[in-house]
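Retro notes
What went well: the complex prediction finally ran end to end.
Inputs used:
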Amino acid sequence: MSQLDDLYRRVIMDHYKTPRNRGELDNESVTVNLNNPTCGDRISLQLQLEDGIVRNAKFTGEGCSISMSSASMMTEAVMGKTAEEALQMADNFSALMKGEPATFGDYEDVEALSGVNKFPARIKCATLAWNALRKGVEHGKGKHEGIEE
Amino acid sequence: MDPIALKSEFPILHQEINGHPLVYLDNAATTQKPRSVIEAIKRYYEWDNANVHRGVHTLGSRATDAYEGAREKVARFLNAPASRQIIFTRGTTTALNIVASGYARQTLREGDEIVITAMEHHSNLIPWQQAAKATGATLKYIPLQPDGTITLEDVEATVTAKTKIVAIAYASNVLGTINPIAKIAEIAHRKGAIIVVDGAQSTPHMKVDVQALDVDFYTLSGHKMCGPTGIGALYGKEQLLENMEPIEFGGEMIDFVELYDSTWKELPWKFEGGTPMIAGAVGLGAAIDFLEQIGLDNIHEHEIKLTQYAIERLSAIEGLTIYGPRKERVGLVTFNLGDVHPHDVATVLDTEGIAVRAGHHCAQPLMRWLKVSATARASFYLYNTEHDVDRLAESLVKTKEFFGYEPIR
């Protein structure tokens, strides 16, 4: 099961079983509800954006270990980053899913998801939270209105 | 019947997936195709291909004979009174939509009722939601029992004098429940409603007699019964089909065309606008030959035994939950493995060469009723064996162990 060990590394299972920043904000500036209609995974991401900086990020949702651990990691990765940096991270995550090397500032946990690249059916699980981030940050800048499921 | 010998008829099943012999347990999604079906389609394209119903030339006649011959096979297979009551469609979804767009929208009035159940596949749910919205009719649900069955008392209570259509699956694609269609048809008719049956999950697995069931419309998908994708059928009682207006207009379905008006061909062709899925129909005909040679009763008996065995083996795994009734069911087992998400289960099984489905199975209201967001499903067919079930059970134990501890790296 070494292929599986690559997919489900310890750091991923840790984020799945003990998710970081799970919950709701009471001072959010944007909420993004995204679901994946083909598999039923869903995420609700709340961001507090202030002076172009992601001050806080929390999520709730349902899904597999990959989608939920990815959401947990994403919130940790973008906390305190500028909107531009957050969008750049979303781009970096897309690159990671294509099998390209990518970094996420000084936050290394996300790189554990690189193994998902070998499981094409699971890539959409991993990208759900990052797509929510992208929409949230863009919405926060006023590009998108009323983003819903 | 001998599933091991039958398996040798299916070329795709003899391969390794991720280093393990393939165990294909996603038959409720689509079944694999025997050599005879693949050959029939190949032969059609290599020898008989032409457009149907118009060529004066020899190939045109051969193609028409092949296409109409397939229709006769479907009619015989379902014990329909006449082949003109069989309309070829893209599949069950299209067949149900023809009834919902044709019959339902043309006959329903405000205050009428459509009755379905909470176990329906989206394809037997959304067409009725839309027909209800378009006509002002009310959509009502027959409630489910805790084991995922419905009672005839609830059918009696839900179907009223206002009910015009009862639409229900013969077999559930998630729970495996087999619904008592003949009895439900009797209740529907007594109250003045017609009954529309989603036969996608029943037709491949058990003998179906549309006259004995006394159903008004019956639908099937070819690809779930060893046939190709893109072909299915709608059976309807003759008078109902006669009274229905066509849904699609164009070539093939017309009688006379004038500048401002046209008339339609007779049944079944008035519902088959455009060049049909000729090769698909030929493939479906070959699939029916294949299934009849084995015998639908034999297939059903084999699947009942295999499902019982699967329920026994899977129930023995601590923390595993099986959904649906324990008897009167078709050959599938829907389950969850503790708090391991079904996607993770399916991924681990795939690395062991085992194909199962994970997700909401196109039945989101049913998932909510089960109070889960998704489930895993193993579904069987004539080529599956107890050995396949053993491989599934062993891999599920491994999956549990895998997620029970954290791999050390």
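What we learned: Confidence is low (pLDDT under 50) at residues 142-149 of chain A.
What to try next: split runs per interface for comparison.
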